[in-house]
Design goal:
Elements (H helix, E strand, L loop, with lengths): L1 H23 L7 E6 L3 E3 L2 E3 L2 E10 L2 E8 L7 E10 L8 E6 L5 E7 L5 E4 L1
Parallel strand pairs: 2-8
Antiparallel strand pairs: 1-4, 2-3, 4-5, 5-6, 6-9, 7-8, 8-9
C-alpha cells in the first residue's frame, strides 16, 4: 500500500512540475539565444562592442532579465538588462533587432525578436 501511494505521489509531482513548466513558457521563449551585432550597441547603460553574444533569459521574481555575454573573448563583456515580454499575434518567422539612435549617435537596443518565439523582448 505504501509503495502504491509513493508511486502515485511521484507521478503526481512529475505531472505538476510539467504543467508548471508549460505554463511558465506560454510565450514560447527559450532560455538561451545567440545574436551578432555588426556595430557597437548600447544595452541598458553599457555600450557593447560589435561581435557575437550569448543571451540568457532569466527571471528574478516577476522581472524578465536578459544577460548578454560576449563570445570568443578572454575577458568577455557581460551586461544585464530588464526587458518586457510583449506577446506577438503569431510565432515570429524571423529574427529581428530594432534600435534607435541616441543623441551621441549610438545604436540603442529597443527590441529583440527571435524566430519561433511568440513574444518579443522590449527594453
Amino acid at each position: 500500500m505504501r509503495r502504491m501511494f509513493a508511486g502515485i505521489l511521484i507521478l503526481l509531482s512529475v505531472f505538476i512540475m510539467g504543467a508548471l513548466a508549460a505554463a511558465e513558457n506560454q510565450l514560447g521563449i527559450r532560455d538561451n539565444y545567440r545574436v551578432t551585432f555588426s556595430e557597437n550597441v548600447r544595452v541598458a547603460d553599457t555600450l557593447l562592442p560589435q561581435g557575437n553574444y550569448e543571451i540568457r533569459h532569466e527571471m528574478q521574481g516577476s522581472d524578465h532579465i536578459m544577460v548578454f555575454r560576449q563570445l570568443g573573448k578572454k575577458n568577455p563583456v557581460e551586461v544585464r538588462a530588464k526587458c518586457n515580454l510583449v506577446p506577438l499575434t503569431a510565432k515570429a518567422d524571423k529574427d529581428q533587432t530594432i534600435y534607435i539612435l541616441n543623441a551621441a549617435n549610438e545604436r540603442v537596443l529597443q527590441e529583440l525578436v527571435f524566430k519561433g518565439d511568440r513574444a518579443k523582448h522590449v527594453f
